[in-house]
Amino acid sequence: MKSRRKEIISYFKRMDRSFFMDSNKDLAVFDQALPIGFEQTISQPSLVLEMTLALDLQPGQKVLELGTGSGFQTALLAAFSGSVYTIERIDELHKRAQERLGQLDFRNIYFKLGDGSEGWVEQAPFDRIMVTAAASEVPRELLEQMSKDGKMVIPVGSSFSQELRLIEKDNAGKVHTTLLNEVLFVPLKGKYEK
């Protein structure tokens, strides 16, 4: 499979992060996480790009995203995959993201309001899974919902110390883990919350 790294980076550089924010728009150009309300944040741009590149998105793939948030990460995923199934537990963020992404005319994003910690079993399996909140451990349900040759990027750890991990499932169904970075995300609410 051909790497789409340059194409993704080019698209990412053209994205207007402020479009996905209701306040602090003047700070959107800085490489830092910023509050979006409800004790949630829009991640720092360099981390959004790093996580997206780690997934190695390919045309036609089915992607699960846990934590729609502002919709910024969702837009990047949707531009480089076949379909994105995104789950957000906070109703107001869910509605705002739907509205924004609708304005951008994405037709391949499917939204769900609810607890994403157990995935979206009705739509499984997924070729790629993006988790934008930290779990205390890798959810077993998400591993089960990954297709063979699937990849997942997920922050794992406590509220003070987290590892960004790339989880890969090979053709035989065996799981391999690579540590990508040290990070700090808001907690993944639900079953895998510490």
From TrEMBL:
One GO BP: protein repair
Entry keywords, A to Z: Cytoplasm, Methyltransferase, S-adenosyl-L-methionine, Transferase
GO terms under cellular component: cytoplasm
One Pfam family per UniProt: PCMT
InterPro entries in UniProt: PCMT, SAM-dependent_MTases_sf
Listed name of the protein: Protein-L-isoaspartate O-methyltransferase
Domain of life, source organism: Bacteria
Broad enzyme group: transferase
NCBIfam families cross-referenced by the UniProt entry: pimt, PRK00312.1
The organism of origin for this protein: Planococcus antarcticus DSM 14505
Protein's UniProt keywords contain Cytoplasm: yes
